[in-house]
Structures are given as structure tokens and as C-alpha cells.
Design brief:
Length: 256
């Protein structure tokens, strides 16, 4: 089983690896044997994440990136390759959120959220898949979607729209990149406390969420790791592409 799910010799770039969920994913990938590039807007936070991974015997590198800029993402890809080697797996885990209602949100905020949560995923998929195609050895792209991708959740309009777009992009790219042996999948987490949603998780809202979740609790960040490692491993998931995997404690299975 260690050979089936192991990632020894693999290089994984985690965009948004400085966040709570992205950070847990970085640690899980490192424990599975991957060399992990922690990409984010804060080099200081990325370096702290790298130090924590190295302290447990893992191999990692910190790389600064503006995930909405193609030039920045390409420069980051080249830096990852210089530090760790060619990238085999990309995880798009960066994102922002907002609770501004539809009648109050302005175009600046709308574009900020869509750029961070959808355009950035498009940019990373394009930049890294081009390099994978040129290398000719295939690869895996894992996008982090959300339970709000459909049906949409209240209070997160722009975020829900962006994550629905991530699902659609994931499935389209699974078709587009299959001839090059690049698998593209998404994970749709349920409710995991993180920086981007902490302000939205009031006591009342948490009670409502838990009441609608068969598991009767919120998720723990490390509970995403197994699914990420599975999708990263060609041995374990080589015939899986275009899938939206829900890790939500059963939230999406409930109706009333």
C-alpha cells in the first residue's frame, strides 16, 4: 500500500500552501514522500511552513507567487524546478471569501474574489500543464473547490460563483489534457475553519451547519490529506479524472 499511495520522487507545488487547509495539505504530501513547494503571497509564512515540514524529515521549499499573474506563476514554476525539480503535481488551494450581499457588492470586490478563486486556478492550470506537456510525462492537477460550488450557500455569493467555475474548469480541462496524460480533479471540502471563512462562522451559523451535516461536526484540516494524496498518486488514481470529490461529512447528501 505504501507503494500504491507513496509519492517518493514526486515534486508537488501547493499554491496557497501558507493557509490553514493548504498548509495541512503540504504536510500530508510531505509525509507521503513528496518534495513540496509551498507557494504563497507571504515568503515569511511560506518559510515557516517549510521549516515545520523539514523538522519532521520532509523536503520542501518556499516560493513567492501572485497566483493571479501569469508571469508571476511562470516565474514561480521555474523557481520550484530550480529548487526541487520538475513539477509532477499541482494543488490549487489559494482563495479568499466575502459575505457582502448581492445588492451591496461592488465590481472591485467581485473581481477580487473571482480573480483569487477562479482566474488564479485557470492561470496555474495553464502554466503548469504547458510545462507538463513539454516534459511529456503527464501529471496531476488538484483544484480545491467548495461545498458552496452547488447548490450555492447563503452569504457567500461571489465565492460560490467562483467555486462553481472551478468545478466546470476542472471537468473541461480533464477532457482537454487527457491526451497528454494529465489528470485534473477537484476536491470540494465542506466546512473547515480557516482564515477565509472564520468571520462567517458565527456560533449560530456553525450550529446550522452541524445540524445539516450527518457527521455532526466541522472538518479538521488534515482530513483533506488522504484525498489529496490519493489524487496525486498515479498508482492509486491513474483512471480518475474530471471528478469532483466531496469531503464534507455528508453535508451535500442532506436535503431537509
Amino acid at each position: 500500500m505504501s507503494g500504491l499511495f507513496g509519492l517518493d520522487g514526486q515534486v508537488v507545488a501547493v499554491i496557497g500552501g501558507t493557509g490553514v487547509l493548504g498548509g495541512a495539505i503540504c504536510h500530508g504530501l510531505a509525509e507521503a514522500g513528496a518534495a513540496v513547494a509551498v507557494l504563497g503571497r507571504s515568503l515569511e509564512r511560506a518559510n515557516r511552513r517549510v521549516a515545520a515540514i523539514e523538522a519532521t524529515g520532509g523536503r520542501a521549499a518556499a516560493v513567492l507567487v501572485d497566483s493571479t499573474s501569469p508571469d508571476s506563476v511562470e516565474a514561480a514554476r521555474q523557481e520550484v524546478e530550480r529548487l526541487l525539480g520538475p513539477v509532477d503535481v499541482v494543488v490549487n488551494a489559494a482563495g479568499v471569501n466575502s459575505s457582502t450581499p448581492f445588492l451591496e457588492i461592488n465590481l472591485e470586490e467581485w473581481h477580487t474574489i473571482l480573480d483569487a478563486d477562479l482566474t488564479a486556478v485557470f492561470v496555474a492550470c495553464q502554466v503548469f500543464s504547458r510545462a507538463m506537456i513539454e516534459r511529456g510525462t503527464g501529471g496531476s492537477i488538484i483544484n480545491i473547490s467548495s461545498a458552496s460550488s452547488g447548490p450555492p450557500l447563503s452569504r457567500v455569493l461571489a465565492y460560490s460563483v467562483a467555486k462553481a467555475g472551478v468545478n466546470s474548469l476542472t471537468q473541461y480541462l480533464a477532457l482537454e489534457l487527457a491526451p497528454f496524460h494529465i489528470r485534473v480533479n477537484a476536491i470540494a471540502p465542506g466546512f473547515f475553519p480557516a482564515e477565509q471563512n472564520r468571520a462567517l462562522l458565527s456560533e449560530e451559523r456553525v450550529r446550522s451547519i452541524i445540524g445539516h451535516t450527518p457527521a455532526r461536526r466541522l472538518g479538521e484540516p488534515d482530513e483533506l490529506c488522504g484525498t489529496v494524496v490519493w489524487l496525486a498518486s498515479a498508482a492509486a488514481s491513474r483512471f480518475v479524472t474530471g471528478a469532483i470529490i466531496r469531503v464534507d461529512g455528508g453535508f451535500s447528501a442532506m436535503t431537509i
